[in-house]
Each structure stands twice: as structure tokens, then as C-alpha cells.
């Protein structure tokens, strides 16, 4: 964890809140809140799309699992590391998706404890629904100019840097 002077931090209940004078700290905290809200909104967008299509058999998290699985054949651990499944149990959702016929699975030859999963044709259909939804949003954002200032590539670069920092912090703990 980064050390801060007592002048830069004030207590708010159990949380430490950077002082108003620390612009970078304030912007970082705002980014954290935005990331969380955007994730929740993304789940709501997926939910609304499936409700519009009268497909109520999947949760938004399950639909995103199918989307993130894509064309790959991976283990549950690999799938978990690819996406954000806040408050969800990947193994539980994979079992449900197998039972519903969206995912097929088989034991790995090398490690019989591991199970490799891949999309069935029904799972590919769901993946394509989510992909089309995201592409419509990308087109709308591009037309509005939202992705131009700052360029979305620079936003992604900064986000990847934060992701790398967080990953290093987790590795440092263990």
C-alpha cells in the first residue's frame, strides 16, 4: 500500500479519505467509483437487452460469462481471470450454463481435476447477442464523439496501467 502523510488523509468513519488538496487522489477515488458504477450499468444493459428479446433464462452475469468465453476452450479459472464477475460464483454459473445447454465441458487429459469448457451453438447465439449490443453502443458512442476526447485508446492505456498496478499489489501481498 502507498504511504501517505497524515496531512493528505483524513478519517471518515472506518475509511481513509484523501484530503481535498490531493487532486490525483481525488481523481483516483472518483475513477474507482466510476468503474464500479459502469460495471453495474453494463449488467443492467445486458439485462435490459435480454428482457427486450424476451430471453429471461439467463442472468446478466451468465450472459457475460458466455460472451467472455467466446471461441476459446478454457478452464473455469482462466475464464474467471478474463472478466469481472462481481458477487458471482463462476463454478456455480458454469454448472447452470452446462445444465441449460449453453456450455459443454470435459475433463482435461493432463489434469483430471480440471474441466475445460466451450460454448455450444446455443451459447454462441447468446455471445453474438451480447456482441451486437456492445457494437451498437460502440457505434453510438463513436457517432456522439464521446470516444474522441480523450481518445478511448488513451483511456484504455491508463486503465491497463491501473490494472497492472493492482495485479502487482495482489502479488506483493502473497
UniProtKB/TrEMBL annotation:
PROSITE patterns with a match to the protein in the record: HTH_MARR_1 (PS01117), HTH_MARR_2 (PS50995)
One Pfam family named in its UniProt record: HTH_27
Protein name per UniProt: DNA-binding transcriptional regulator, MarR family
SMART domains noted in UniProt: HTH_MARR (SM00347)
Source organism of this protein record: Paracoccus alcaliphilus
The organism's place on the tree of life at top rank: Bacteria
Keywords from the UniProt entry: DNA-binding, Transcription, Transcription regulation
Membrane-crossing segments per the record: none
Positions of the UniProt region annotated as Disordered: 1-22
Molecular function via GO: DNA binding; DNA-binding transcription factor activity
Domain (HTH marR-type) ranges: 28-164
GO biological process, one term: response to stress
